[in-house]
Amino acid sequence: MTQTEKTAGSAPAPAPERADARGWAAVAAVAGATFTVVTSEMLPVGLLTPIGDSLNVSEGTAGLTLTVTGLVAAVSAPLLTPAFGRADRRMLLCVLMAVLTVGNLMAAWAPNFGVMMVARVLVGLGMGAVWAIAAGLAPRLVPAGSTGPATSLIFSGIAVASVLGVPAGTYIGELADWRMAFVVIGGLALAVLVALAMLLPPLPGEERTRLGGVMGLVRNPQVASGLLVVALLVTGHFAAYTYVRPVLEEVSDAEAGVIGTLLLVYGIAGVVGNFISGAGAGRSPRRTLLVITAVLAVTAALVPLIGGSVLVAGVLLVTWGLSYGGVSVATQTWLLASSPEAREAASSLFVGVFNGAIAAGALAGGLAADGIGTTAVMWLGCGLAAAAFAAVALGRAPETGRL
């Protein structure tokens, strides 16, 4: 029996086929929410050059639009989750998507960099909490036998956004301008809000989580190891990927339209990598992440070394996308399998560390790009991915990723 059926009171239970279909529709709406929040966060990556030009700041400073969003999400997710208590998760998701809508539309309007940063703070508040709530909802929406695939579908919204959100924003920016990209994602956030309100059943909080209980999970060695892997791997990725456009412009002499195409190819490869890694992580999160971290380290190093032609750069981006596409599903599978009794608390920690790492990566990459040179971000990404490989190999991991 699903949680939906348990909370239905004395009303007759719907036919199994109908209940299952409604549950999967709700899961799809939640996946739409995770896709939208992460796309909102990632959107500036492919637009740094035009944003910087329009708002009269350097590319390194423009990268702060990613840093501030990640920092706000990192701090707010572990704090807000206990504060929500037993409040209905459907209502909370709708409110948070409304905040995200306002943040994106404010970014589209921003007349100066200060207003842009306020807008990105709102995006951070919305995305961190949505991600933390959404990650643990699958068992409450579908029958027990479908929990694994439903959880993977919710995670896929995060992974697909990570790899497709950037090229989508780049294309919209080229077809219109960077402001229109924020208008489009703001409209998508509003549409997802409506879908969540219509498709989700009432979802009261299952248990009251205290901040001390959330932080106490760090004492679990499997959770601590997983969080360390997330911190190193995601910091390294975003130190390099946040500045992929100026790197390609310098190393491969690629034009804006070509870069958009390359990032789209990267995104498609990432979608494939998400589902491949999802299946692998269910069997062994450690083995899956060993492959991911090794491939990312080697690929980042090869971009400045052999990426001088657009063709070779494209091959490297496909490899990068295949590997990074599996990061979110593999690392969150590791963490949820390490603490199945506290899914929402573990997810809030994951969101905090993941987004803190995004902020740290974007900041470190910006300092390297402005202080040393654009291609330095690739060497930084390589070193941190290699450190993540060591953390995976030496850390405590769950035996399997079965949820």
TrEMBL record:
CDD domains xrefs: MFS_NepI_like (cd17324)
Subcellular location: Cell membrane
Keyword set, alphabetical order: Cell membrane, Membrane, Transmembrane, Transmembrane helix
Primary localization class, coarse: membrane
Domain Major facilitator superfamily (MFS) profile: 25-401
PROSITE patterns in UniProt: MFS
Transmembrane stretches, start-end: 21-40, 60-80, 92-111, 117-138, 150-172, 178-203, 223-244, 256-276, 288-306, 312-337, 349-369, 375-395
Iron is among the record's keywords: no
Membrane topology qualifier: Multi-pass membrane protein
Protein name per Swiss-Prot or TrEMBL: MFS transporter
